[in-house]
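--- STAGE predict ---
source: upstream dedup step, 1 unique chain passed
mode: sequence only
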Amino acid sequence: MQYILGVLLLFLMSCAQMRSKIETPKKNENLFRVSWIKNLDPVYNSGNLPIGTSSPFIFEDIVYMGDLSGSMNAFDINSGKLIWSASEGQTIQSRVNKVSEYIYYGSIDGRFYSRHYLTGKLNYAVDLGSPIESQPIYSSGRMIIHLRNHTIITLDAKTGKIFWRYQRSIPYTTTLQRVSEVYPLDNNIIVGFADGNLVSLSIEEGIINWEQKLSTGVKFVDVDVTPVLFGKYLVAGSAAGPIRFVNTTNGLIEKTLEFTQSHTALIHNDELIVGSTDGIIYRIDQYGKIISQKQVSNEAISSIVKWKGALAVTTMGESIYLVDGEDFTEKAHFSLGSDQSAIFGTATVSGEYLSVYSSRNRLYLFK
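--- STAGE serialize ---
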């Protein structure tokens, strides 16, 4: 009898343990763990809300971020401690780039800077004559910058000597007043302009190889998303038209997908991941066919990057998402805390770190 009672008790205890394991859900780990936040909001008058549109840049253990007060700041990625800061006197909205021992960026008054990445010591500064808001791009020993006045300038990365400039005549008065970054391809650069055209220029002399109208609209036709090479096609879209697959040799449009691209596309597992102005993420194969799609947000998607084995998705609203790379299901969610907050720039990833800059001029570092 005691034996039977013992077996019964053991059985009941095992069942209780099984129920406990089944019924007690495992606590979900918070994948958006804030390591530190920097408030870079400038002094401003009430009713004149300054909007941040730039993006952070990470190299090794340093996070670089320019601000609206005119300072370029270098923060330690682990502690958030300020390593150095340089006051340029004018708003900085262009994202940093790094080549060799120097970082490069521009200010709203058109001044282009080169500083030592570790100390902040000035290498050179050059006046280019128009606001610099896009990230300077490096190719073949040259820095290539797209200015606000629709001008492309190439200069020697080491000395700042200007090689050539190409200025585009824009007949439209209704533009988004944003500029895309140039995309180096072989001995050429590909760039979108505010007149709705995608243009190929020779990197040596700035001569037009071809140009192609991408936009189908009549206003706000800007091609302001940086194109990417996907297979044998250049993929680009405009603010007032569908996404296009363009022949790299002659600029002819070979495929069209009827949705509006809102950020630079991401190549992931030999597929193209693109977010739209409607908050939908699309997965596209090498033949230009939409494999799958999912509504992730009600706001336009501003960037998608790979992070923690998944995809971090920033939006032009207060939410950041971490979604599965295969079916886009939500794994985690982070709120910036205010409907006045948004991410207009690009998220930056370095190893286990993710950094974003909000429209309220807060620099976030997640780990």
